[in-house]
Write a structure and sequence with these properties.
With 377 residues, this protein is of the alpha/beta class. It is 35% helix and 15% strand. It is built from 15 helices and 13 strands. The strands form four sheets. It has a six-stranded parallel beta sheet with strand order 5-2-1-6-7-8. Helix 1 (24-34) packs across helix 7 (172-195) and helix 7 (172-195) crosses helix 8. The radius of gyration is 24 Å and the shape is elongated.
Length: 377
């Protein structure tokens, strides 16, 4: 990445005390830290468990931890004893945000729950990331990404049409929970400018997983039909699926009649757009199998990467299916500054681009308790 000095971020001056571990909370606080917030990552004496989730490792720390903990200062505290609790309170005296993902009731047991902290620190925004929230039929139970995918219907609509549901191949629930937590924190910071008061932010994996059920939830609400896996095909749009080419799979995402006509022209078969079986999206859905067979025949001689770029330039949404290495090595990935490097560190860049106050790499992921000496601990 560029060695040009990074200007202060948009969250410069915002102090965040981060008690969270694993992924949802740390992903949230890395977003805040990338944009200038002072994030104090406070780990238990034995550290965030993801430090050991390897190989691979960077200087003894697992890549999993490295991937979501840059731009933070590292502190270590035992919150189960009085000295640790006292030290946390000293940090909260001038903090803007506390984020944690303890099991509901744990901080309350230590006298550090929202009711107690809000009395002493009325401006503090307290964000709790949990599995199910603190009450209700499942309240207080532990939550995990894959279990949320299973319970909330995501697995039931992901996978091949003739197979059972499959976990999404990345921790999508944890990550969208982190995103929602970051949005909630920014909303609360904005509201505090008017009221002068903090508030409690209740962000649950269960809710966030359910929020991802589009278009499956509205389809169910208005049809009464339970959604099933459709492979790479879209339940509402055609052609919106993977098709074979001579060099590998190509994904088409044709959302309207104009795009379909463009696809037909680019394939040298403009008559497809006039075929009554394919005249509208509803027709194309009804005759999906015939359309798939004809498109596969027409694409057989094309190169996926080259033809997908030609289609894009013609206004037809398409993409060659790339693996992770191909995606990270793509010239546009470099152009968008989506891979950051500093010495041995390599990480994904921020997708949030601000013109005057861009995010950036200010410090590498901290060692456990790296800043304890600064605080005299």
């Amino acid at each position: 990445m560029s060695q040009v000095p990074i200007p202060p971020g948009s969250l410069s001056g915002c102090k965040v005390v981060d008690l969270s571990r694993v992924l949802g909370g740390p992903y949230c606080t890395q977003i805040l830290a990338d944009h200038g917030a002072e994030v104090l990552k406070i780990e238990p004496p034995d550290g965030d468990e993801t430090r050991g989730w390897g190989p691979p490792f960077l200087d003894g720390t697992a890549s999993y931890f490295v991937g979501v903990n840059r731009n933070k200062r590292g502190l270590s505290l035992d919150l189960s004893d009085e000295p640790g609790q006292r030290r946390l309170r000293s940090l909260l005296a001038d903090a803007d945000v506390l984020i944690e993902n303890f099991k509901p009731g744990t901080l309350e047991k230590w006298g550090l729950g929202y009711a107690a902290l809000s009395r002493d620190f009325p401006r503090l925004i307290h964000c709790r990331v949990s599995g199910f929230g603190g009450d209700g039929p499942l309240g207080g139970l532990p939550g995990y990404d894959a279990c949320a995918q299973a319970m909330c219907g995501l697995m039931s609509v992901n996978g091949e049409a003739d197979g059972s549901g499959t976990r999404v191949g990345l921790p999508v629930v944890d990550m969208v929970t982190g995103l929602n937590a970051a949005v909630a924190i920014l909303l609360a910071l904005n509201e505090r400018q008017r009221s002068g008061l903090g508030q409690f932010l209740d962000i649950a994996l269960y809710d966030c997983a359910l929020s991802l059920l589009h278009p499956h939830a509205p389809n169910y609400f208005y049809s009464g039909q339970v959604p099933r896996p459709t492979g790479n095909a879209h339940p509402n749009i055609a052609p919106y699926e993977t098709l074979p080419t001579r060099s590998g799979p190509l994904f088409l995402a044709v959302g309207n009649n104009r795009q379909f006509a463009g696809l037909a022209r680019m394939l040298g078969a403009p008559e497809l757009a006039d075929d009554p079986r394919f005249a509208s999206n509803a027709d194309r859905l009804k005759n999906r199998a015939a359309l798939h067979a004809r498109l596969a025949e027409l694409l057989r001689g094309h190169d996926a990467a080259q033809f997908s770029e030609r289609l894009l330039r013609a206004g037809v949404p398409a993409a060659a299916v790339q693996d992770v290495a191909q995606a990270l090595d793509h010239p546009h990935t470099a152009h968008r500054n989506m891979v950051w490097r500093e010495g041995d560190y390599i990480g994904l860049g921020t997708p949030i681009k601000l013109s005057r106050t861009p995010g950036g790499l200010r410090s590498l992921p901290p060692a456990l308790g790296a800043s304890n000496d600064e605080y005299g601990w």
